[in-house]
Design goal:
By secondary structure, the protein is an alpha/beta fold. It has 14 helices and 12 strands. The structure holds nicotinamide-adenine-dinucleotide and thymidine-5'-diphosphate (TYD).
């Protein structure tokens, strides 16, 4: 079986590649990634020689029909996992257009090429072919203090990022309803874990604290996110790939809601305990101007995936956050290369011209 993972060099994509290489020892994985600022080939350095033989990296853009078409001509792709996206809400506020291009049009291009190669789209499901779209709980908008998002919750995105992901979900659904494309959509809450790009809350706070830099908390810091360890998300995507229904949407969540400020304080305490560095303390916290349109709370009802596939999150937040912080301590060079920009040279040095 050959699996295509788009956005493979990003945070969740890279974790998913490792997960699938282990889970399917006979499978080959093609990782397609445009290597935007968020793509990092260092993320594949931990692969064994055997895993490297089954992993094929292709530098390519999901917006580029010829590049995507080349992948489908070269490999007999049985399953597509579309992780490729612009993913950072703050960036979408400053420069929305690339979000619409990649997240909406890129997804449509990928679907279209896929449909062309899986000619008998209607029979594709029976042939085991599947297109899994990785979406987000942010498409549902914001919750008050009570209640949870279900798959039936009205889509009400507020940021250009979440609006572009919601639009992609609708296009993916339309390809199922109109052309019989064998699609599944997952909507997951906030992931954390290794290889998380240090612009997002958890890795940013870890890196700033280690360097005794200010910890910028937006507004009052009492916004709530549901956090899930990235490996639990990867397992959920695999389980709906194996057991999900065609055309269905599955929420994925960690049962684990926390206010941002409490996460920042937990990171400070854990880092100080692990390093003995007394300069890592709450004085580093700065409440800064709030993000425009900032969603107050996300909370997930993951009953459907649990009932239909048996999936449940396995990693407690206590364990997950500790092992994540340890990973960042053991891999400081990984973050330093991003901060210095050196990670961008990796492709030229190691892959270009092959
Ligand atoms: P990320 O920003 O770390 O990685 C995105 C990857 O996509 C990068 O490697 C980048 O180079 C690649 N990419 C961007 N534009 C591309 C294009 N045009 N063609 C090919 N590759 C391109 O993002 P992430 O956090 O790993 O998120 C992956 C997916 O999961 C996204 O679709 C995101 O919406 C979704 N998601 C993320 C979270 C989260 O908490 N991070 C939660 C739910 C859903
Ligand atoms: P983020 O990691 O960007 O994920 P998302 O916006 O997709 O949920 O942010 C998580 C939460 O942390 C969000 O409520 C915004 C907040 N935040 C800060 O308070 N300070 C920061 O520097 C960042 C990056 C985020």
């Amino acid at each position: 079986m050959t699996i295509l993972v788009t956005g493979a060099a990003g945070f969740i994509g890279a974790n998913f590649v490792y997960y699938m290489l282990k889970q399917y020892p006979d499978a080959d994985i093609v990782g397609l990634d445009a290597l935007t600022y968020a793509g990092n080939l260092d993320n594949f350095s931990a692969m064994t020689a055997e895993q490297k033989r089954r992993f094929h990296f292709v530098k390519g853009d999901i917006n580029n029909r010829d590049e995507v078409d080349w992948v489908f001509s070269e490999y007999d792709v049985r399953a597509v996992f579309n992780f490729a996206a612009e993913s950072h809400v703050d960036r979408s506020i400053y420069d929305p257009q690339v979000f619409l291009r990649t997240n909406i049009l890129g997804t449509q291009t990928l679907l279209d090429v896929c449909k062309g190669h899986w000619k008998t789209a209607v029979n594709a499901w029976r042939a085991g072919r599947k297109f899994v779209q990785i979406s987000t709980d942010e498409v549902y908008g914001s919750l008050g203090p009570e209640g949870l998002f279900t798959e039936e919750t009205h889509l009400d995105p507020h940021s250009p990022y979440s609006a572009s992901k919601a639009a992609a979900d609708l296009i993916v659904g339309a390809y199922h309803d109109t052309f019989g494309m064998p699609v599944i959509i997952t909507r997951c809450s906030n992931n954390y874990g290794p290889y998380h790009f240090p612009e997002k809350l958890i890795p940013l706070m870890i890196n700033n604290a280690l360097n005794h830099k200010e910890l910028p908390v937006y507004g009052d810091g009492r916004q709530i996110r549901d956090w899930i360890y990235v490996k639990d998300h990867c397992r959920a995507v695999d389980m709906v790939f194996e057991q999900g229904r065609p055309g269905a949407v599955y929420n994925v969540g960690g049962n684990n809601e926390h206010e941002n400020i409490s996460i920042v304080k937990l990171i400070i305490d854990t880092l100080r305990d692990l390093t003995g560095d007394e300069e890592i303390n709450p004085d580093l916290i700065r409440h800064v101007q709030d993000r425009p349109g900032h969603d107050r709370r996300y909370g997930i009802d993951a009953t459907r995936i649990r009932e239909e596939t048996g999936w449940e999150p396995e990693t407690t937040f206590e364990d997950g956050i500790k092992s994540t912080i340890r990973w960042y301590l053991d891999n400081r060079e990984w973050t330093e290369k991003i901060v210095s920009g050196e990670y961008m040279e990796f492709y030229e040095k190691n892959y270009a011209g092959r």
